[in-house]
Amino acid sequence: MILGKISGAIHSTINHKFYDNRKLLVVDKLDLDGKPTGDYLIAVDQVGAGAGETVLLMRATLPEALLKMTWLLCGQ
Questions:
Q1: Is residue 23 within 8 Å of residue 71, measured between CB atoms?
Q2: b/e for 39-67, b at 16 or more Cβ within 10 A?
Q3: Alpha helices, H only, 1-76
Q4: Where are the domains positioned within the chain?
Q5: SS3 43
Q6: 34 near 54, Cβ under 8 Å?
Q7: Who contacts 9 (Cβ-Cβ below 8 Å, separation ≥6)?
Q8: Which fold has domain 2-75?
Q9: What are phi and psi of 18, to 5 degrees?
Q10: Which of 16, 37, 38, 55 might form a disulfide with 29, Cβ 3.0–4.6 angstroms?
């Protein structure tokens, strides 16, 4: 699991049907002290989070061939 802060959203006009009606967010990774690490992730929003909120991210554990997403917001 990773701690992060939402910095924005991603919008696309062409994408896999899995992403229809799902919100993709840009999440800046935070260290354990809550300071930005300089890295970011793109995650599927499952909790209704918004810009500036601190969130917890979970990595999917299925084989990559079965995945349509890797990172998922699981708490805010």
A1: no
A2: eebebbbeeebeeeeebebeeeeeeeeee
A3: none
A4: 2-75
A5: strand
A6: yes
A7: 23, 24, 25, 26, 51
A8: OB fold (Dihydrolipoamide Acetyltransferase, E2P) (2.40.50)
A9: -55, -35
A10: 37
Q: State residue 30's pLDDT score.
A: 96
Query: Tens digits of per-residue pLDDT, 5-40?
Result: 999 998 888 877 877 788 889 999 999 999 999 999
Nearest-angstrom CA–CA distance, 28 and 16:
24
Longest dimension (CA), the chain: 38
- pTM, to two decimals: 0.74
Q: Pull the structure tokens for residue 6.
A: 């939402």
